[in-house]
Amino acid sequence: MILTVCLNIAIDTTYTVPGLVPGSSHRVATVGARAGGKGVNVARVLTSLGQDVVLTGLAGGSTGAQVAADLAGLTGLAGLTAELVPIAGESRRTMAVVHGAEVTVFNEAGPLVTAEEWRAFLESYAGLVAAAGVVVLSGSVPPGIPASAYAELTGTAHTAGAAVIIDAEGELLHEALAQGPEIAKPNANEVATLLGRPARTTDDATEAAELLVKHGAKTAIVSQGAEGFVAVTPGKSYAVRPGRLVHGNPTGAGDALAAALADGLTKGQDWPELLRNAAAVAAAAVAAPLAGDFDARLAAELRNTIQVEEV
Ligand SMILES: Nc1ncnc2c1ncn2[C@@H]1O[C@H](COP(=O)(O)OP(=O)(O)OP(=O)(O)O)[C@@H](O)[C@H]1O
Ligand SMILES: [Mg+2]
Question: Of these residues, 167, 255, 263, 295, which one is catalytic?
């Protein structure tokens, strides 16, 4: 079983409008709403990859109930079990306004979580992680959750014998590195504080990945959007490039990448194969309009076009 953690769960709302003019009224052409947050996207992709997935996180208020109902199968996802810990605060909503080829996004910070609620989560997590082979820790956390959260969750996972993939930034990521996560996967902007600048080139991304390893990650992957990613593994370093550029919605490509990395870890694939498969799934996620979805047929088609080069 793969355990995915989404501490800042949301209802992702998507409005489509012909054009966006600040300060004016808009007629909304289409409305979409479904459970979201990075950990939810990861869980969706893993479920599509055929994995047995448990999604955990914090959920509160009517938005939390809507998330739970969505995940329980109102829109149907076989293979996914949600184990959400209740909180008194109201879970957040995000709003994406799609206008032409552009998307404008509004992300709420999320509800205030009390120390008691966080302790209840840690207790529940310790029980769930006992049955997990891999844990994926993704995204931001709501107010009230300490910066040491992912470090603590990584330590508990390791005690239980589970591997950890962390896709986060800032203090959440930096504190967790000391616990030696199996894979750290920030994107090129998210390594800016570590590197002193965003990673713009392959050399920058490699330097950032090496720094992540120096701080404790066993493998570090720095993703660079349409350029692909750099991976520094315990043996070798690789530059992975999509052979074919995919047009679409890049939001959630990193979540798909994290999910596919977890999938590869459970299958014991060697690094070149694992990285190739992961890049194909991430690229196929760009072609799908909604974050958390990907076209498996396209992923299979793209696999052979991915370039995996030792650096
Ligand atoms: N246009 C594209 N065509 C092909 N592959 C892509 C494209 N965009 C992204 N990818 C693949 O997806 C991976 C992850 O993308 P990216 O670096 O944008 O992640 P991210 O910023 O963490 O995204 P998010 O946090 O929204 O999920 C890239 O390393 C690359 O392999
Ligand atoms: Mg990301």
Answer: 255
Verify whether ligand 1 is closer than 6 Å to residue 209 (CB atom).
Answer: no
Q: 258-292, pLDDT tens digit by residue? A: 999 999 999 999 999 999 999 999 999 999 988 89
Q: Where are the domains of the chain?
A: 2-19+30-310
Tokens for 151?
């470090």
Looking at the DSSP assignment, which residues form a beta bridge with residue 80? 53
- Which ligand places an atom closest to the C-alpha of 169? 2
Q: Give the pLDDT mean for 8-36.
A: 94
Residue 16's region, left for phi above 0, alpha for psi from -120 to 50, else beta, is: beta
Q: Read off the tokens for 29.
A: 């052409």
Per the structure block, which two tokens stand in for 160? Answer: 């239980």
Question: How far, rounded to the nearest angstrom, does the alpha carbon of residue 68 sit from its chain's CA centroid?
Answer: 19
222: CA distance to ligand 1 center in Å? Answer: 10
Phi, psi of 22, deg, nearest 5: -55, 140
293: annotated active-site residue: no
Rounded CA-CA distance 169/6 in Å is 15
Beta bridge partners of 221: 231
pTM for this entry: 0.96
CA-only gyration radius of the chain, Å = 19
Share of the chain above pLDDT 70, in %: 99
Q: What's the fold here for domain 2-19+30-310?
A: UDP-N-acetylmuramoyl-L-alanine:D-glutamate ligase (3.40.1190)
Q: Cα of 224 to ligand 1 centre, how many Å? A: 7
